[in-house]
Amino acid sequence: MLRRVLYIDLDKKDTWIEERYDLFEEWLGGTGVATQLLLKECPEGADPLAPESPIIFSIGPLNTLFPVVTKTVATFKSPLTGELGESYAGGRLAMAMRFAGHESIVIRGKAAGPSYISITDDKVEIKDATSIWGIPATRVGFILREVEPGIGRRSIIRIGPAGERGVKYAGVMVDTYRHFGRLGLGTLFGSKNLKAMVISGTEDVEVPDPKSYRKIYNKLYKIAVQTDSMEKYHDIGTPININVLNQLKGLPTRNFQSSSFEDVEKITGEFLADNYLFKRVSCAHCPIGCIHIGMLKTSFSRMHEFEIRKVSYDFELIYALGTNLGVSSPEGLLELIEACERNGLDAMSTGVVLAWATEAYERDIITPQETLGVPLQWNNVEGYLKAVDYIVKMPNDFYAALAEGVETASDRYGGKEFAMNLGKNEVAGYHTGPASIVGQIVGVRHSHLDNAGYSVDQKAAKKQLNPEEMVDAIIREDDSRGVFNSLVGCLFARGVYTNENIIEALGSVGIKKTEEDLDELGRKIFQEKFRFKRREGFDLSKIRIPERFYQTVTTMGIVDPETVESMLEMYRERRGWHR
């Protein structure tokens, strides 16, 4: 198996390939390798949007070879937080990189004008993108499909106007329905005058032990499709959690003013599946079909009765643009999701920013003059759609502040006690208790997916866990996900890829690991990520926790600030860190 890193210098229009067996031997692939490349390639203290700040993509040794190992990781310095940026996306990108023969791609510099990168095997071209600059992300893929080769083994990733204009939480659309959403990768693309990348390949992948490979492949496939380990992701998808968390009082509503939504019925996963589901699709080499596509039917013109738009939805989008904004209409929800897709915005950050702005507007912190007459009110979909447009266009100081994220906006206008972010990253859709708060604070991306603290809360609600046990659970997940994200697998398949199965799968492709090796690797990857974070100025002891977390009931009841502080102190001690 090749262990190649492709380097692309946009300034010089130069490309080259390096064989890095040493790097992949030590760090496996995926996030382990990408973190090392980021530490080397990103100058200490660099402006995230400066030409010297790199973009790095990486896949792992099991991508394309095994079911549900479908992701690609991107690492970069985040323009939103100023420290570690890391995002994951499915679609066809990992497959395209594998067949092109590149396990990692490093992008340096800044193109002289609007450009896109075309990669076919070892052939790399930097092409003019003037004609597609300013085009919505949802349209760019259709255009590039007509001019770029590689159908079937091709991935097209691109940004929308938000990334071009420098919204700090702009994302990158991957193929049609997947994204590098969090922490502003799309903003880096825009800063480099990079509109898109098209990757395709014709290489084949050989395995050293076909018999062992077939045996473990069949075992993993059967677990994925013939047991209930992933059944819910096909049937309802992640939106199944809307009803569950609503009943548990863990679903953020109207900017975390409540933890349940009284008008939830028409935006649950079950209701959307029964009334709006158009189809299910999968990432490349995934048999599950967890991507749920809704059908949005809207008035088009007098001569044409309806326009049909296909919009993907999941739990986080329903929270961010639904319950957190008090939106109870499925059509309104899908309209807001589609607006984020079109503009290339991270939906979670957008929803949290709009929720803060709505509460600030209610409290007269923000005036109609600052909103340019847009009525920011709960469940006012038309107002929110206009606000999304203004966030991208930034017609005044207020919308320019919103484009920098909720932490910056609240710095300038007030309302920090209800500006819902941790580590400057807008928070996810869980208000379950102290483990969720602590998990997002200590997570390498300040993401709910770093260590699933919300899941620890839910377990503690069923069987009492003391703070020490919750911290230990968070640390175990911190470390184990470093290994899993180096493969790079879909986190929905964590139950399929146990350590035993990972070891067997790696062995079939010529990589020998023990359980002790994996445990040690996970710890090392986590510490290396925090090495980058601290290098770029992150200080865990100085993180700000909005008061709202302590004012609204959670699944675990009202959270005591002292509990969170004691858990953070335990976490530091167990990691061997000192203030």
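Above is the first protein from milestone M3; the second protein from the same milestone is given next.
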Amino acid sequence: MASSTTLQEIVACLADRDEKPAIIGFQKEGQESYSFKELGDLAMRLGRGLLKSGLEPGSRVLLLAPNQPEWIIVCLALIYARAVPVPLDAQIGGEELKALVRNSDPRWACTTTKLLRRLEETGKKLNFILLDAEKEERPHWRGYLTDSNGSLPAPAPDDLAVLFYTSGTSGQPKGVPLTHANITSNLNALLSLNIIRGEDRVLLPLPLHHVYPFTVGMLAPLGAGVPIILPHALTGSEFLRAMQEGGVTAMIGVPRLYSAFYDAVHSRLTQRSRIVAALFRGLLVASIGMHRWLGFRGGYYLFAPLRRRVAPGLRLLASGGSAMDPDLAWKLEGLGWQVISGYGLTETSPLLTFSTPGKEKIGSAGRAMPGVELRIAKPEEGKQFGEVLARGPNIFHGYWRIPEANKKAFTSDGYFRTGDLGYIDNEGYLHLVARASSMIVLSGGENVQPEKVEGALEQSPHIREAGVLARNDRLVALIVPEAHAGPEARSIEDLIGREVRRQSSNLPTHHRISDYAITRDPLPRTRIGKIRRHTLSERFEHAKTGRDSKPGPVPIEQMAPEDQELLGDPAAKKIWDALAQHYPQARLAPEINVQYGLGIDSMDWLNLTMEIHALTGADLDDAAIGRIESVRDLLREATSPTHLSEPAADLLERLKHPKELLSDSQRHWLEPQSRSMRLVGKVLLGLNRILLRSLYRLNVQGKDQLPEEAPFILTPNHASLLDPLALAASLTPEQLNRTYWAGWTGIMFRNAFARLLSRAVRVLPIEPESGPLASVAIAVAALQEKQNLVWFPEAGRSHNGKLQRFRPGIGLLSSAHPVPLVPVWLQGTYEALPPGKWFPRPHKISVTFGKPVHASELQATAKDDYQALADALQERVAALPSGSDESRHP
């Protein structure tokens, strides 16, 4: 495309292109596509129609909506009509939205039906353009289309084109007005670098209210004539779906997105086995070394099979928004992808520097864009760096209605003060050191770069995020542990304390942390990943006093708009309510980690996925579970059309042949034991019988009610690690020889010794890697071989000794292979060894077996209602004669 001086020219040129796709938007089901010609025609027809309806050139129009093709159409139409789009974050808070509406003073607004109410609550009278109304009439955007022809008057290059707002990392966002000349100068310079090829297809996962995705992710591909791919959501499944089905070759992202992308690839490979993990690390080190020291991109060939599985055509990863960690960039390069990055600000439209393919210098921000002049302000005494100053046609002329800020924003000779500290090397590459506004100055005069400290802390495998701030003239940190750091608060405190000291030891003395607070919640960040530092002090205080971990669900009205929209889905709301019921002692919020925050383990996943299936019809497989980290991820995965599964009857049909659902390693656990293994098992179970009966005065009741013939399922309550030991001591050696135990891999299979013991006493692995259906299948396979089974229907141990609600897994299991269910009540195990304790104390233990019951006797509701069956069985267990009423119910 020839160089343009206004954005209106770019819109007008779209209709002259062919029928090649311009936008492909993925939906819950299928795709929505617009060709270049169709996009140009719709934008111009809509622009003319809006002018006829009273839209005035130069008037500001709010754009409050998530990414979707219609957002782009309306934005281009406004530009064509010489109006001024004001893109806002669809997740913006209520008070901030009111402030920005007052500041921008719009007359029109483009939004969705779900976000319409939020704009109405600002009190501003607006004309609305809806992106998703049902009928093709006003205020739906198609209702404004007109068939009138003729070109519109052209704007001047210095006319206001778009009004952006900064992300507000250090306080209230500021309005940044960008002219047509500002944006087109940057766009023309970017296209002149020939980074985008004619056959490319660009994935755009970033929100368009930021200038970086707006210019680099939207305008640049349209100007180059290549399609934009919009994922339906940023869940793992939707992200992968968009990359693969959309034929993506280039991606526009930010460092945190690429970090998550690499972590997903790394974990999927290294969790398979130690051999695979070691091979992967060795090849990656070799690949990075070849590229770094020999200039040979060996990873392109070494990891070609991996890249084909992720996204066959993906070649280019463009990063912006903040500086990428050089270590991450080398890893991505080592895997065979090409990483390019740029640096700039909203005020610079956005790019000041860029690293072009083949000339990139990892660790730098690249060289100045064509037409941009950079210089470094005079460094302070003893410093090698200073503030980065910039001048060029892409630089804005001043903040919106903040004249006092404009005086500080420019030097006397017209250079823009970026607020970033850095230096330029001998080859012209800019190296950024820190953000001046985030620099911490202690009373002794020491300058602390919080990003440097945060980066060092986050090198720990046990620290997910760190936010550094000054408190009482001391350096402190707000720490978010990794999910695997451990469930016990005391062990986490000890672990994180050691990690903070260890990671800080490599830093200068004045960069070391003197105190820290642990929080379960992710650090507050902008949509492109920058920490909102002005909120850290309050968050630190809350974490230090424990106010950030109040149990119970967060009120929906206090959530971000995106999460409110997510919970507007009836299926997501059902799952949310179920989580609130199952985890009443946890703090339930969309961002809470399901493992660390809720304590969901593999047994929980088994039952939770069955319940989700019963509530919504979604069938979460092992791949989906592997992608879930937060409650938000769980809700998105469960409501994704990808997981709408077959009817429950089809699940039962699949479970008729359970071994077909098992891996070779799972089938191994069903094979007959060797003679030596049987001997070990007899010795262990015999010792257990002696110890339990002597030390805990074990009392067994109702044993005569056990069926004489196998198979049957024992369904005890679960309050202690002593439960299986007490139950085993209650059964005869003959019964034990015909009994399998469903055991969580996190305890019974964590190492070689534990696996040996599990094999000896006939424990079957219930593991997340196999998926929930396979975990039921291994139990069904055992029953089909005429073996008894012990299954704890509560999934996990009760935190208070009271009977917890039974999970639907037992309902599916007993429906798949109907055999007698034996209710069992274990009394005294909680008092002897409650959860969180490792040293048992003397206490009498009793085991009561109830009358066997068949699933058909329990099923009082609709067929295949697994939760109803589980609830009925729970009542049978609670009604057993041993124990007090208080201990039988939550």
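Note on the second protein: The radius of gyration is 31 Å.
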